[in-house]
Write a structure and sequence with these properties.
By secondary structure, the protein is α+β, with helices and mostly antiparallel strands. Helices cover about 40% and strands about 15% of the residues.
């Protein structure tokens, strides 16, 4: 269970408050105390203010929801992520390797490190069978196959995507997942935009209009095929 402490009153340095009780976790209080001699925590707060109330910090950080770090002001959505982050300030490394005594701030980093001792390389390039103990090393390797394009490779087919959102949509081609359903005919789709186009069949809406003959279509792909008839030699 997480332990908490309070700071009260006005003063100088990173522990300065605004005359009200301020709630901190014990690890945060220890971090603040260790930084109090040089006021480095106070210097990091926006606008030079040293108040650490959540409401004040949220206003400074553009209204982002979450709990701000009292040392650097970075916002985190929950206490678990805040606890991990605070280790960057305190230097705490609670996870130790039992073979070489190297220590880590996160459990996941220890798990990756242990593969050095076990020789395990679960991340395999599907194009050349090169294997790695760390997924980040595989991503860097995949860039060589993709001409240096940055992104995350699909673990099934190796295709690279620039972000997690596009990767999630792509993975549905492998899993068969179709989360978007028409409430009139129960047909399902992988993407919300495909459902939106499909719904025009039921509504009769045809917003895609040919500027040459005014023919209208519900699906932009049908319009492109139609325009090809006008242009013939133009590849769309």
């Amino acid at each position: 269970m997480q332990e908490y402490g309070f700071v009260h009153g006005k003063g100088e340095g990173p522990l300065a408050g605004d005359g009200h009780d301020t709630l901190f976790t014990v690890s945060e209080l220890e971090a603040l105390s260790s930084l109090s001699t040089d006021n480095s925590a106070a210097k990091s707060l926006d606008c030079g203010e040293r108040q650490v109330h959540r409401e004040e910090r949220t206003r400074h950080l553009g209204g982002r929801k979450g709990r701000p770090c009292v040392v650097c002001g970075r916002v985190f959505p929950n206490n678990a992520k805040m606890t991990i982050h605070m280790r960057t300030h305190t230097g705490e490394k609670p996870y130790g390797c039992d073979q070489c005594m190297k220590r880590f701030q996160q459990k996941g980093n220890l798990k990756i490190h242990m593969r050095i001792h076990s020789g395990e390389r679960p991340f395999v390039c599907l194009q050349c069978n090169a294997s790695y103990s760390d997924s980040s090393n595989l991503r860097r390797h995949m860039m060589k196959h993709r001409g240096g394009r940055k992104g995350r490779p699909c673990v099934v087919c190796g295709k690279v995507f620039p972000n997690n959102a596009k990767m999630a949509i792509h993975m549905r081609t492998h899993t068969g997942e179709k989360p978007y359903r028409c409430d009139q005919c129960m047909k399902r789709f992988r993407q919300s935009c495909n459902l939106k186009i499909h719904m025009r069949i039921h509504s009769g809406e045809k917003p895609e209009v040919c500027l040459q003959c005014n023919a209208s279509f519900s699906d932009p792909s049908n319009l492109r095929r139609h325009i090809y008839k006008h242009t013939r030699n133009v590849v769309l």
